[in-house]
Amino acid sequence: MRRVSRIAVAGAATASLALALSACGGTSTESGSSADSDKGLAIAYDVGGKGDQSFNDAAYAGLEQAKKEFKYETADIEPTEGETDADKQQRLESLAKQGYNPVVGVGYAYAAAVKGAAEKYPDTTFGIVDDSTVQAKNVADLVFSEEEASYLAGVAAAKSTKSNVVGFVGGVDIPLIHKFQAGFEQGVKDTDPKVKVLSQYLTQTAEEGGFSSPDKGKTAAEGQIEKKADVVYAAAGLSGQGVIEAAAANKVWAIGVDSDQYKQEALAKYKDYILTSAMKDVAKAVYNLAKSVEDGKPQTGIVRGDLKSGEVSLSNSNPKFADDAEVQEAVETAKEKIVSGEIKVKNS
Fold it and tell me: Which residues contact 315 (CB under 8 A, 6 or more apart)?
């Protein structure tokens, strides 16, 4: 177990500022670049950054839990617009060089950067969320069976629609988001084949803003609502906020993603129209990696969260959803069949 300094936390703000300057192209000082065994978990955010009320904020919640429990210094760094893989790798290497351990890249876009940084800093444990392609002795691939939670979201949508039309909005047309779409569509069709699913992607690449443009999400949702969709599920990061806004404006249901979006303060004025959220516990995965390092037994290889482990789920925060006995029974039955293997959920 690492030695913990009680004064380390006091330096967190200074260190975060230094790291932010370094990430923007500045150079760290000699003292700032030396390894410090009192430093703990550091995360580098995906597109959208902190405040997305979704994926990145979930990672931050895991960091906060580790910081509180282990009483060590942490860091969280924002992405920059138009950055390259080399920029990402430099950011991760800067964190490792300063003694942070583990260092986590939040999102599949960090794959090349994590691979390069892990080779350069073999004594540091690295994590990457939503990617399983980096195979190294000091890397943990934190992945999830998103299609399983999305299947349950499809069951809920099929049971809740009055128009027999529901929508799916994906942020970027990539295999990761295909998992959300596949599970959702299967859940809808298995529950009620009469229900039509409208599916749309916002962009072909993340650089075009598919995960970071609420206006794009709002426009897409409005288009589906015009076609009679009365439940719209978004797997689009920050763009999903626009989907939720459109749903609330038109008094139809939205289904959130990654975090329990009914509970998000920034979305409070829309929460009465957030039916549920298909969650994946990025916070738990990030915290567990930090704990494994703290315990001296770092996780490595593929670490998967699914319905069986409880790391993907459907939220019950909205009382209208939680108290709907028919919907709850359908969701619970589907969950049991997925966990038992009776239902095989498609991931593409």
Answer: 256, 260, 261, 262, 263, 276, 277, 279
